[in-house]
Design a protein that fits this description.
- By secondary structure, the protein is of the alpha+beta class.
- The protein has one domain (10-160).
- The protein is built from three helices and six strands, in the order H-E-E-H-E-E-E-E-H.
- The chain has helices at 10-49, 78-83, 141-161, and strands spanning 59-64, 69-74, 86-87, 125-126, 132-133, 135-136.
- Strands 1-2 form a two-stranded antiparallel sheet. Strands 3-6 form a two-stranded antiparallel sheet. It has a two-stranded antiparallel ribbon with strand order 4-5.
Length: 166
C-alpha cells in the first residue's frame, strides 16, 4: 500500500494511515491464529501418539487475542508424557536419547524404600493408579509443537501479508 501525503489534505493522509494500520492489525491477528492452530494440532497429535503406559487425560486448548496466542495442555498425565517417567537402565548415568537431563535419574520420580527410585528395578514400578511400567521416555509434545510453529511462522506471515521478500 502506498500512502501519499498531500500537505493540503492531512485528513486524507490520516485516513490512509488508519486503513493501513487496520490491515496490519488484521494480518497480525490472522498470523497468530494460524500459528496457534498449527501448534494446537501438533500438540494434540503428539500427545495422542506419545509413548506412555498410563491413562491419558490430556486436553489441549488454545486462545487467540489480537496480537498473541497460547496453546495449553492440561491433565494429570501431561508432565509424565512431556518429560517422561524414567526408563529401566543398567547404569542410571547412561541417560537414553530423548530424556531431559535433570537432577533426577531415570525412574527416580517415584521414591523407593532406599530413596533412590526404581531405575534398577527389573520388574518396573507402578503409577499411582496401579498400572505397572518400566517407564517411558520424554515425548516433548509441547516443545515439538512449538518447534513446528517456529518452522512455519515465516511462511504464515508471508502468506497472510502476501510478501514475496525473504
Amino acid at each position: 500500500m502506498e500512502i501519499t501525503i498531500d500537505p493540503f489534505n492531512i485528513d486524507k493522509a490520516i485516513k490512509e494511515f488508519e486503513e493501513y494500520r487496520a490491515k496490519v492489525d488484521k494480518g497480525i491477528t490472522e498470523s497468530v491464529k494460524q500459528a496457534v492452530e498449527i501448534g494446537k494440532a501438533e500438540a494434540q497429535t503428539r500427545f495422542t501418539i506419545a509413548e506412555y503406559d498410563g491413562p491419558r487425560d490430556v486436553k489441549v486448548t488454545s486462545k487467540v487475542n489480537k496480537r498473541s496466542g497460547r496453546v495449553t495442555a492440561s491433565g494429570e498425565s501431561v508432565l509424565f508424557i512431556e518429560f517422561g517417567t524414567g526408563l529401566e537402565a543398567e547404569n542410571p548415568r547412561d541417560i537414553p536419547e530423548g530424556f531431559y537431563k535433570t537432577a533426577y535419574l531415570p525412574g527416580s520420580w517415584s521414591e523407593g524404600p532406599e530413596g533412590k527410585g526404581h531405575w534398577d528395578d527389573p520388574g518396573g514400578w507402578y503409577y499411582g493408579h496401579g498400572r505397572k511400567t518400566k517407564g517411558n521416555k520424554a515425548n516433548k509434545c509441547m516443545y515439538d509443537a512449538y518447534k513446528e510453529v517456529e518452522r512455519n511462522i515465516r511462511k504464515i506471515v508471508k502468506e497472510v501479508f502476501k510478501c514475496s521478500q525473504t
